[in-house]
Amino acid sequence: MSVNAAYTECVSDMFHICRDYSNVCSKPSTHKTKLKENKMDTLNQGKEDKNKDIIENNNKNNSGNRNTKSAQFKVAFITQAAVIAALYVVLVIMFNYCSFGPIQFRIAEALTILPYFTPAAIPGLFVGCLLSNILGGAAIWDIIFGSIATLIGAIGTYALRKNKWLAPLPPIIANTLIVPFVLRYAYGSEGVFAMFFVTIGASEFIVCGVIGMLLLFALNPVRNVIFKGVE
C-alpha cells in the first residue's frame, strides 16, 4: 500500500470516528432539549388551565351576584306593592263615608303619587283600589272601571316621574274622565251629568294635587331608605 493510500484511509477512519462521536454526544443534548420543551408545555398548559378556572369562577360569581340582586329586587318589589295596597285599603275603610258617591273625597288617592318613587306602587295601587271597592260594596262597574282609572293614573305618574310637578296630573285626569260615567251608569246617580266632572275633578285635584304633593315632599328626603332596591 502506498503512503498516499494509507494517509487517505487514515483520514477517512478519523472522519467516521468523529462523526459517530458527534452523533453520540448530540443525543443527550437533544433528549435534554425535548425534556425542557415538555416541561415548558406542561407549565404553559397549567397556566392556561388556571386562567380558565379563574375566568369560570369570575363568571360564576358574576352570575351569582346577578341572581342575588334579582331576588332582592323581587322581594323588595312585592313587599312595597303589598304595603301600598294595604295602606290604600285601610285609608278607604277609615274614610269610607267620603270615599264613595257623586261627591267623594277619597283620601287614599293621595297615594297615587307613590309611583314617582317606585314602580311597585303601580300594582300596589291597582290591587288596593280593587280590594277597597270590593270591601266597600261598590257596584261591579265601579270595581272594574274605578280600579282601571287608578291604574291608568299610577302608570301615568310613573311615566312623568322626571318632573314632580306633573306627577299628580295623570290620576286627576283619569278619575275625572272615568268616574263620572261610573256614577251615572253604575249607580244611576241623579243630577247634572256635567257636575260630576266638576265634583270629581275638584276632589281629585285636592287629594292628588295638594295632599299628594305634600306627601311627595315629605317622602322625598327619605326615598332612598323607604323605597330602597326598587327605584
Description:
The model has no long low-confidence stretch (mean pLDDT 83). This protein has 231 residues and is mainly α. The chain is elongated, with a radius of gyration of 41 Å. Helix 2 packs antiparallel against helix 3 (140-159) and helix 4 runs antiparallel to helix 5. It is built from 6 helices and no strands. It has helices at residues 3-94, 121-135, 140-159, 169-186, 193-219, 223-226.
Name the descriptors.
single chain; 231 residues; mainly alpha; 6 helices
Percent of residues in β-strands: under 5%
Number of strands: 0
Structural class: mainly alpha
Q: Outline, from the CA principal axes?
A: elongated
Helix content: over 70%
Rg on CA atoms, Å: 41 Å
Q: What ranges have pLDDT less than 50 throughout 5 or more consecutive residues?
A: none
Terminal CA distance: 110 Å
The mean pLDDT is: 83
| Number of DSSP helical runs | 6
The secondary-structure element order is: HHHHHH
Major sheet: size, sense and barrel closure? none
